[in-house]
């Protein structure tokens, strides 16, 4: 008989009652089923199906709750705690929260998930025999994804980020489509596990989608103009930026391209809300 380990689903016999629940056995090992982990009536001599996990002391314990995430099986689970030194903890449906190690998370903590975000994970056993969460791989997503149709072009789409890289973000849509958001198609990098909404800008031959989180040009123009005007108001009605400023400086302070900046600034000047003098832009004060 193979030795049972964390993450196993097993049928065990109820051996005896204990102070805080029951001890179960497979004939070789005993496992505590705590009262809090019982979902129905239990009595000595019964054979019940349980899921095995590591308790706070690292010992194997049992629960009658069979989680939706299992060894080799994936699902979305909620992030319930963040530990910068260890990683993030997720709720798979049992009393014990499961760690997704920082080794599996993005190098930059700015794109780590927040509490309430959801990660697409399975379970794994590390070299110490501990049960951990493991993020989905690109190979697995390619196996389970739905194939998009060309009619989806320009449609709005929502989903969660399952992989975060500098070059772009990978999203699995609510419907199951595999999506890529290039770094040029986002104002800021989404968090791993964050739910975002964008629009389809390309349907690829392999059935995946390219998605943009940027607003349409007219909507973007309004938003960019408002952002620039608000910046001016916060800085005493002036700023050391004009339509001749360097693209890198504009990107750093406003998070937009020079072309978008020039369009928005041109609109403000056309509406006689701002004016340029030398290397500066000023709010035009109404008389």
Automatic annotation (TrEMBL):
User: Mind telling me which InterPro entries this protein's record contains?
Assistant: CvfB_fam (IPR014464), CvfB_S1_2nd (IPR048588), CvfB_S1_3rd (IPR048587), CvfB_S1_st (IPR039566), CvfB_WH (IPR040764), NA-bd_OB-fold (IPR012340), S1_domain (IPR003029), WH-like_DNA-bd_sf (IPR036388)
Q: Which family does it belong to?
A: Belongs to the CvfB family.
Q: Tell me the protein's name.
A: S1-like domain-containing RNA-binding protein
**Which source organism?**
Alkalihalobacterium chitinilyticum
Q: Which SMART domains match?
A: S1
Chain ranges of the S1 motif domain: 5-65, 70-136, 152-214
Question: Gene3D superfamilies recorded for this chain?
Answer: Nucleic acid-binding proteins, Winged helix-like DNA-binding domain superfamily/Winged helix DNA-binding domain
């Amino acid at each position: 008989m193979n030795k049972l380990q964390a993450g196993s689903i097993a049928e065990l016999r109820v051996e005896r009652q204990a102070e805080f629940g029951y001890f179960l056995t497979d004939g070789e090992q005993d496992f505590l089923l705590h009262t809090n982990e019982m979902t129905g009536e239990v009595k000595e001599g019964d054979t019940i199906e349980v899921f095995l996990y590591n308790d706070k002391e690292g010992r194997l314990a049992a629960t009658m709750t069979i989680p939706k995430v299992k060894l080799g099986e994936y699902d979305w689970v909620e992030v319930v705690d963040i530990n910068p030194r260890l990683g993030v903890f997720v709720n798979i449906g049992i009393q014990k929260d499961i760690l997704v190690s920082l080794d599996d998370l993005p190098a930059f903590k700015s794109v780590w998930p927040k509490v309430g975000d959801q990660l697409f994970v399975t379970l794994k056993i590390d070299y110490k025999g501990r049960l951990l969460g493991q993020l989905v791989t690109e190979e697995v997503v390619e196996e389970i994804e739905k194939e998009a149709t060309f009619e989806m072009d320009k449609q709005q789409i929502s989903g969660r980020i399952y992989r975060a890289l500098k070059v772009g973000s990978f999203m699995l849509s609510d419907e199951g489509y595999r999506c890529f958001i290039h770094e040029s198609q986002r104002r800021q990098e989404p968090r791993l596990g964050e739910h975002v909404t964008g629009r389809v800008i390309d349907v690829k031959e392999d059935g995946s989608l390219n998605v943009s989180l940027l607003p349409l040009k007219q909507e973007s123009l309004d938003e960019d103009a408002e952002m620039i005007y608000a910046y001016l108001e916060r800085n005493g009605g002036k700023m050391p930026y004009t339509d001749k400023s360097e693209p890198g400086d504009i990107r750093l302070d406003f998070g937009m391209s020079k072309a978008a900046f020039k369009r928005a600034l041109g609109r403000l000047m056309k509406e006689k809300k701002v004016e340029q003098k030398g290397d500066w832009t000023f709010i035009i004060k109404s008389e």
